[in-house]
UniProtKB/TrEMBL annotation:
<keyword id="KW-0413">Isomerase</keyword>
<comment type="similarity">
    <text>Belongs to the LacAB/RpiB family.</text>
</comment>
<protein>
    <submittedName>
        <fullName>Ribose 5-phosphate isomerase B</fullName>
        <ecNumber>5.3.1.6</ecNumber>
    </submittedName>
</protein>
<dbReference type="Pfam" id="PF02502">
    <property type="entry name" value="LacAB_rpiB"/>
</dbReference>
<dbReference type="InterPro" id="IPR036569">
    <property type="entry name" value="RpiB_LacA_LacB_sf"/>
</dbReference>
<dbReference type="GO" id="GO:0004751">
    <property type="term" value="F:ribose-5-phosphate isomerase activity"/>
</dbReference>
<dbReference type="InterPro" id="IPR003500">
    <property type="entry name" value="RpiB_LacA_LacB"/>
</dbReference>
<dbReference type="InterPro" id="IPR004785">
    <property type="entry name" value="RpiB"/>
</dbReference>
Length: 153
């Protein structure tokens, strides 16, 4: 599988560990940076990662920052990206199964390497269930598909 990773300065070590582990697992991996712990802005790297997932260069994306929150928000600004912030394997699996997530985000200050690997494994191995979930996933990228009653809120 073609997987792209990006982080901010707070997640350099976790990104490197996951990159090396994914390569060992036989995946084609693109590390979109950064390369040093010099301070950077997570939206820059979130947007970059979202772009390569949206255009199909990567099949899946892994976004990392200190908490995972900021980079996940920047990823989800791209309508072709469905990035779920996860901290354990069940949420990673459900993000794929129910939401057809093509990216996950994790916080390097909150998630250890073993748990991060377990999340990535669940994310990569779980298939999208489709069915009743497809209608909802379609609405994530196209809010105009939402029902009329949402306009009254």
């Amino acid at each position: 599988m073609r997987i792209a990773l990006a982080s901010d300065h707070a997640a350099i070590e976790l990104k490197a560990a996951l990159r090396d582990w994914l390569i060992e697992q036989g995946h084609e991996v693109a590390d979109l940076g950064p390369e040093t712990t010099d301070s950077v802005d997570y939206p820059d790297f979130g947007y970059k990662l979202a772009g390569v997932v949206a255009d199909g260069t990567a099949e899946r994306g892994i976004a990392l920052c200190g908490s995972g929150i900021g980079i996940s928000i920047s990823m989800n600004r791209n309508p072709a990206v469905r990035c779920a912030l996860v901290s354990e394997p069940l949420s990673a699996s459900l993000a794929r199964e129910h939401n057809d997530a093509n990216c996950i985000a994790m916080g390097a200050r909150l998630t250890g390497i073993d748990m991060a690997k377990a999340c990535v494994t669940a994310f990569l191995e779980t298939e999208f269930a489709g069915g009743r979930h497809q209608r909802r996933v379609n609405k994530l990228s196209n809010p105009s598909l939402a029902h009329e009653y949402t306009k009254d809120i």
